[in-house]
Design brief:
The structure is a single chain. This protein has 422 residues and is of the alpha+beta class. The strands form 4 sheets. A 4-stranded mixed sheet has the order 1-2-4-3, sandwiched between helices. It is globular. It starts with a helix and ends in a 17-residue tail after the last strand.
Length: 422
């Protein structure tokens, strides 16, 4: 799809500009703080700031996905563990042109959510919660997977990693400087730069600039990050509608996610921006919150359902302008110029199958397997779930009274950081 590749190129150009701007803010902060503490030490402060940034970047670049998976409690599964999920991901891999099938993870959580990670398309992962897997039908699941695939294809994951680490470096340096100044620096600074009589006025001004920049830089950087995060969600929704040719799939999924009251047990403020919906936000309002990492979920639903029967970037951008009441959209002009209008396809014939109870049972069995339950399939048709601490040597089927020896549970392997041999 030409328009997808145009969007990728536009994202890359914007990524370079944003990274340069954030790096300039970081180096300016390091320079001003060092120059305020010791005249002439500005270049040394720049080196320290860039050193902090480089260390954090290397950790995030090489281990960021593993850290995110570990914090979320995600565990990798194979196709035999849940064929329906793998089939949907394989379909979206082909549709998006992703060169390699992402690794698939399940989060042991009954809240409805999902995220993608991985610094490169050939090292990508897709993780969904057990709750989402149990509640969504095939079209809705396809919409969520397409949204996450779009983040991978559009290089959003790498962009947000770089910007997030740069913000983290700015916050760390600012906080260290301000704490040091509060705890013990004021007396030393006043002696160095003098009192109102004959003090070094230039030095005092530099200290004031350093304090102001240390306070404002994290705020400015955070607002930039939030604006980027919201924009990437709009673009991923648009890409998902084009990839699936069925905007209602993602809209229906977002409606279920937005109406789900279950809190995520292992989400953190740091990992929240990576999910398809912020697990800490109440999604009922239509108004945009400037401190949010995601657009209002009800607004996203209205945009998808306002695409006028066409699965295209033009249709999404027009619907967004109508819903938001603005003249400007979010899709890059180059992507719009290469856009191809496609008709919305009908829902899958198995839209309601398997039924919701069967989906929840499948998801529940998968979670039990993750938690080392042994599952015995009795010839009478019932599945017996044996917890790992079950002490008896046999299990008796409650339906036919057959006795079954307790098998050894086969746990789903967990995600572990991969360390390359030197």
């Amino acid at each position: 799809m030409i328009n997808m590749w145009e969007q990728i190129r536009m994202n890359r150009r914007r990524s370079v500009v944003l990274v340069v701007l954030m790096a300039l803010l970081l180096t300016a902060l390091g320079y001003v703080i060092a120059e305020g503490a010791q005249p002439g030490a500005g270049p040394f402060g720049v080196l320290i700031a860039m050193g902090v940034w480089l260390v954090m970047m290397l950790v995030a670049y090489f281990q960021g996905d593993n850290i995110l998976l570990a914090v979320s409690g995600a565990r990798e599964i194979e196709k035999k563990d849940h064929p329906r999920l793998f089939n949907v991901i394989e379909e979206m891999q082909i549709a998006s042109g992703l060169p390699k099938m992402p690794r698939v993870f399940i989060i042991d959580d009954m809240a409805l959510n999902a995220f993608a990670a991985g610094r490169k398309p050939d090292k990508a992962v897709v993780a969904v919660t057990a709750g989402l897997l149990g509640k969504l039908n095939r079209d809705q699941l396809q919409g969520v997977v397409a949204h996450e695939m779009s983040h991978i294809v559009n290089r959003d994951v790498l962009l947000m990693t770089i910007v997030g680490v740069t913000i983290g470096s700015i916050v760390l340096i600012s906080e260290l400087f301000l704490r040091g100044f509060r705890l013990g620096g004021r007396g030393a600074h006043s002696r160095r730069y003098g009192s109102s009589r004959g003090g070094d006025g230039a030095g005092g001004i530099m200290i004031v600039i350093a304090i102001v920049l240390a306070i404002l830089a994290p705020i400015v950087a955070q607002f930039v990050y939030l604006a980027i995060s919201r924009r990437r969600e709009y673009l991923a929704d648009a890409s998902a509608a084009v990839l699936t040719r069925y905007p209602e799939g993602l809209a229906g999924a977002l409606q279920l996610i937005g109406g789900d009251p279950t809190p995520m047990a292992r989400a953190t403020k740091a990992t929240a921006p990576m999910f398809i919906s912020n697990p800490f936000e109440k999604p009922g309002a239509m108004a945009l919150n400037l401190t949010s990492t995601h657009p209002p979920i009800q607004e996203r639903i209205k945009i998808l359902r306002g695409m006028s029967g066409a699965a295209s970037f033009h249709a999404y951008d027009d619907a967004l302008k109508t819903v938001r009441g603005r003249k400007s959209g979010v899709v890059p002009r180059s992507a719009l110029a290469a856009d191809q209008a496609l008709p919305v396809r009908p829902p899958h014939a198995e839209d309601e199958a398997p039924d919701p109870r069967m989906r929840m049972r499948e998801a529940g069995d998968l979670v039990r397997q993750m938690n080392q339950f042994a599952i015995i399939a009795c010839p009478c048709g019932i599945k017996i779930k044996i917890p790992p601490d079950y002490a008896r040597p046999v299990a008796i089927c409650p339906r036919c009274q057959r006795k079954h020896p307790i098998p050894t549970a086969t746990p789903i392997r967990t995600a572990k950081p991969k360390v390359k041999a030197e």
